[in-house]
Automatic annotation (TrEMBL):
<dbReference type="Pfam" id="PF07486">
    <property type="entry name" value="Hydrolase_2"/>
</dbReference>
<dbReference type="GO" id="GO:0016787">
    <property type="term" value="F:hydrolase activity"/>
</dbReference>
<dbReference type="Pfam" id="PF01476">
    <property type="entry name" value="LysM"/>
</dbReference>
<dbReference type="InterPro" id="IPR011105">
    <property type="entry name" value="Cell_wall_hydrolase_SleB"/>
</dbReference>
<protein>
    <submittedName>
        <fullName>LysM peptidoglycan-binding domain-containing protein</fullName>
    </submittedName>
</protein>
<feature type="domain" description="LysM">
    <location>
        <begin position="73"/>
        <end position="116"/>
    </location>
</feature>
<dbReference type="GO" id="GO:0008932">
    <property type="term" value="F:lytic endotransglycosylase activity"/>
</dbReference>
<dbReference type="InterPro" id="IPR036779">
    <property type="entry name" value="LysM_dom_sf"/>
</dbReference>
<feature type="signal peptide">
    <location>
        <begin position="1"/>
        <end position="26"/>
    </location>
</feature>
<dbReference type="InterPro" id="IPR018392">
    <property type="entry name" value="LysM"/>
</dbReference>
<dbReference type="InterPro" id="IPR042047">
    <property type="entry name" value="SleB_dom1"/>
</dbReference>
<keyword id="KW-0732">Signal</keyword>
<feature type="domain" description="LysM">
    <location>
        <begin position="27"/>
        <end position="70"/>
    </location>
</feature>
Amino acid sequence: MFKSKKLKAFLITLSLSLVSAKSVHAASYTVTYGDSLYQIGKLFNTSANIIMQNNGLSSSNIYPGQVLNISAKTYTVQAGDSLYLIAQKYGVSLSSLRQANNKWDNLIYPGQSLNIPGTASSTATQPSKPTVSKSVIPYTASDVDLLARLITAEAQGAPYTAKVAVGAVVINRVQDSRFPKSINDVIYQKDGGYYQFSPVLNGWINKPATQDSIKAAYEALNGADPTNGALYYFDDSTTNSWLWSKTVALRVDNMVFSYYN
């Protein structure tokens, strides 16, 4: 009788320990702007061909909102968890955990299922550890929020590339000796009595950021720069000859990004 109770208690403990960490299986990943099968495969330690096979795809074309079956380990959120702690638990970067779940805020809840990146191989006893993305400049949570709000104000409705590019311009200015040295100071800078960014003047900077803009802010902070170093952007309807005198780095729809010269 004693042995039976011990065995029962052991089995209950074992089952509870398995609740939060499930083995590799078909998880769901929702495609977002800028994704490719190659990038998704790299994130989950698999290949584009395998993803195509698992989803019955005849080509590598994917679209935002499409749900793909991905072989990945999942984790069920427990009380007291945070994305940072979960990333530490599995030895992955916080950035890759966010990407694997399209999760660009910090709100999680007990019972929520999260994909763990870099764990597609069923023979691995430990999750593989991808290269940790390092930010190109120091930043705080308030910096991310401010940058994302600027991106929302300036590029809402524009392609995702334009959102990342707006973020990159701010980061490039922080890194350039001719501009202030923080995200806050760059965005709120006045030159000749005029704000550098119109959303600060018209109040749009105070509107909440969209999820796409938050993601774009993180990408820019991690070094993504579609402009390759631009320091300005403007609408192509402007008649400002000084702006048009700059070398154009990138055009996305009606947005023009340019260098300092």
